[in-house]
Amino acid sequence: MALTLQEARALLDRLPRAALGFFPTPIMRLDRLSDALGASLYIKRDDCSGVNLFGGNKVRKLEYLLGQAVRDGATHAITYGATQSNHAMETAWACRRLGIQPILYLTAVVPPRPEDVRANLLLDRVLGAEIHIVPIEPGETEADAEARSFEMGAARAAELNAAGSKCADIPMGGASALGSVGFAAAMAELRAQSDAMGLRFARIYHSTGTGGTMAGLHAGRAMLGMDDARIISVAASPKDAAAYLDKVYGLTRATLSLIGGDAAPDKAAMQLRLDQWQPGYERPSAAGSAAIRLLARTEGLFVDPVYTGKALAGLLADIEGGDIRPGENVLFWHTGGATALFAEPEILGEVT
After folding, report:
1. Is residue 85 among the annotated active site residues?
2. 150 lies in which domain range?
3. Which of 114, 149, 174 marks a domain boundary?
4. Which stretches of 72-176 are DSSP H helices?
5. Active site residue: 85, 180, 237, 285, which one?
6. Tens digits of residue pLDDT in 129-169
7. Same-domain status, 152 and 39
């Protein structure tokens, strides 16, 4: 049974939460881009969610993950990602905000240059995070190196705990039931905003990586009975579709169980797009670069080559293919990450 906004907020308020972001994030109509494409396009500015310039979708997750860590008395927090991970950088600044020492295990998908440290990795250093770069060894896959990073993080946590500190484990991408609560709450935020605007969004496009944002959006959709909203999740890296959807469905169910109530997710409504991630994670695409230029030159807004540029390319492909009807209200959820515009050339690509 769907909840009212008041009922949903009452359930969400039972969970520990640290105030880290500026919410609600704005929704803007993209007037010039809409006119150019014959569509009705809006953008939700989660790139503006943080207490500093570098916000993004992870702030919503970290409010709950680090809220629990604070309640548990954590002195340190360990998390994982690639060397240019948005999640790792946002975890580092959020930890500093809360007086927690951040520890990062970063897989070198694109090896950083010690003489030219850039973008998120530079910010991690400015923040004074304890940083461990995990190379991908010959014969290893990215997943193998990530698995090693998890083992290294677990050993470091055990060391700290044995010494009398208390170390919180923050999953890669914030992808856990508690983290995904942040995006269930975001859907309640969106419902309140769309009610105030007097409109409904027929489609919501966003980038998906570890799956926590996707799970949270679907949890919120189910919780509030927002069956009229199609959520299109555009993958930023290769996925086994069946396994990934099983994972996200399970995470969505766990998120709803944590929140409470009796809502159930609709697995059939989970739409995963696998047509934009090529040529690889942290590898630019021609369509993504074109989307970056188009948004910048029509609206003066920036998306990135790893996540949001490719997700926007998926939306633009649907307009070009006629899948989005004229006048249909479409929301692009800007999940942040524009610091990648200042990353290594192998990540940036040809955006000018």
Report:
1. yes
2. 58-174
3. 174
4. 86-98, 119-126, 142-162
5. 85
6. 999 999 999 999 999 999 999 999 999 999 999 999 999 99
7. no
